Amino acid sequence: MNVSDVRPLIGITTYYQHATWGVWNGEAAILPGNYLHAVVDAGGIPVLLPPRGTGTKVLDTLDGLLVIGGSDVDPSRYGENAHPTTEFDTERDSHDFALLGAAEALGLPILCVCRGAQVLNVAHGGSLLQHLPDVLPEGERYRCAPGVFSDTRITIDPESLAHSILGDSCTVSSYHHQGLDRIGKGLLVTARSADGLPQILESTDDSWLIATQYHPEEKRLEDRRLFAAFVAACGSRTEAVSDTKPTPSEEITE
């Protein structure tokens, strides 16, 4: 069998916005390239999921789900009014929440990044800090300037899945103005930065679920461990599902 036939299929959420390139000027479904490269480098086959029109049935064909970063979550989902700095897309929220919930129900390995971690927390009944400078004026500088990432040192719980992948601590790339506040049901904080802000969430059960407030795809060339572990988990699930399917000689025909 060709190697490409057995690589796991990784669904990746995207976002919809105005874009311009060449003579084109219009709306587009967009995925920052580093997410794509990180999945491919780790041995996965990326499947881009447009933020309009994608149904949860597509997850039946996939081996894992990557929920990427982007705009804020609608604060009405966690019972708050919007802060002046909060910007959200209700259609994208509906799309990402539906896909994430369905992926959890199917037991797919899931990796959530930045906004993805916030979607996960809110989906489990948690809440967000809508603007970190209001509550952590002396904390880490998570967003230095538009499009500029900052380095953040995180410390990881030794009993966690993240620790088995990343060790005691590591330096990560941050770009966000919101953070995790009340942690949702069934989730556990397994890494924090020096200012106490949660940086990694995991499931309290044995699901392969990691959500990072930071952006692991930005350090993909120097630290491939998290994406490698995620794609490996998706590959293990692929093999397990394949093992339960009958081979042609085992199929019963009438």
Automatic annotation (TrEMBL):
Domain of life: Bacteria
Entry coiled-coil feature ranges: none
Keyword field contains Hydrolase: yes
Example GO molecular function: gamma-glutamyl-gamma-aminobutyrate hydrolase activity
The entry's keywords: Hydrolase
SUPFAM superfamilies in alphabetical order: Class I glutamine amidotransferase-like
GO BP, one annotated term: polyamine catabolic process
GO cellular component labels: cytosol
UniProt xrefs under InterPro entries: Class_I_gatase-like, Peptidase_C26, PuuD-like
Record-linked PANTHER family: GLUTAMINE AMIDOTRANSFERASE PB2B2.05-RELATED
Name recorded for this polypeptide: Gamma-glutamyl-gamma-aminobutyrate hydrolase family protein
Species assigned in the record: Rothia koreensis
